[in-house]
Amino acid sequence: MTYVVTEPCIKCKYTDCVAVCPVDAFHEGPNFMVIDPEECIDCSLCVDECPVNAIFNEPDLPAEYAHYVALNAELTKTWPLTKEQGEPLADADAWAEVKDKFQYLETAETV
Q: Residue 53 domain-assigned?
């Protein structure tokens, strides 16, 4: 099992999670972060660091976020690895409580 970044991260991209990851499992897209399931060691350190509660242990994943398991695995193959905490998106706070954000996910390969 692995940890999975889900919809609340879209258009926020807080990177507090990256700073605590001991194995460099995070990859960064234009407006979303993902966890590489091959690198994740299930330590759970990232969960408490996420200010929008976007990270779940796969067995605890709410049903509406089930497709994010495959999405995280797919996007880690094309998005660059990120190892350091950066700034959230400029309007992250405005998007933090917004629901149903999947339509806003940008999947371009470069940040």
A: yes
Domain harbouring 38, CATH code: 3.30.70.20
**How far apart, in Å, are the Cα atoms of 47 and each of 35, 51, 83, 103, 106?**
12, 9, 16, 24, 23
Say how far apart CA 97 and CA 18 lie, in whole Å: 21
Residue 72, helix vs strand vs coil: helix
Predicted model pTM: 0.94
Helix (H, G, I), strand (E, B) or coil at 69: helix
Tell me the residue range of the domain where 16 lies: 3-91
Q: What is the DSSP letter of 10?
A: T
Give residue-wise pLDDT tens across range 60-88.
999 999 999 999 999 999 999 999 999 99
